[in-house]
Each structure stands twice: as C-alpha cells, then as structure tokens.
Amino acid sequence: MNNNNESKYPTLKVIMxxxxxxxxxxxxxxxxxxxxxxLDWIAFFLxxxxxxxxxxxxLAGIMLAYFKIRILNPEHYLKAFxxxxxxxxxPSLLTSLIALIGESSVNHLIRFVGGxxxxxxxxxxxSAILAKFILPKY
Length: 138
Description:
- This protein is mainly α.
- The chain has five helices and no strands.
- It has one domain.
C-alpha cells in the first residue's frame, strides 16, 4: 500500500456515518425478535434505537477512523465487530453502574451486566454491517 492511499482514508465520512446509521442498523438487527410483539411500535422502536445508539456508534466511528481500519479481507470485519462491541460496552456499563447506585442486590448487577454484554454484541454486529458499506476496501 502506498502513502497516497494512506492519506485518502475517509476519516470524516466514517466519523459522521457511523453515528447517523449505527443505532438504526442495530435496531433493524433486533427488530425480527420484536416482531411477535406487533407492528404498531416499529417506527417508535427504531427512533429509540437510533437515539440510544448515537454515542456508541460515534465512539466506534472515531476508533475505526483513528486506527484507519480497512476491509481488505473477511477477517477485518472482526476488527470492526470488536471495536463496535467495545464502543458499545463502555457507555452501557457506565450507564449500568450509575443505575446500580444504591442497589445492593446481586441479581440487579447480573441483569445489568448481562444487558450490557447483549447491547455490546448488537453494537458489534451493527459495526460489522456498517463496515461493509462505509469503510474503505483498498
């Protein structure tokens, strides 16, 4: 790879498109599991998913751009997945810890940490899907 390609990394595109689309893609990933609940709330759910996913997706976009992650082979999707997991896990755990202030039950702790891990997996899947369309392939 020459230096010309190195300088053409679409940093601004990655940092802007990940937060704009990350939560929405994560919501679409979860949507099939919610369809049995009914179709009445799909738009509301997708708006909430987009809002909740803004911060983690922004963190993922910043980290992907900082490390200049490219999709050169299928293994690079794993990098995007793990960065998305980490970017989602950090704010999720922070939110869980804030929610646990004053709680003394171990069950609450297990539930919040389990939820944080589930959210991080959804964030990782969303990041890998977006990598297909946003990250450079050169």
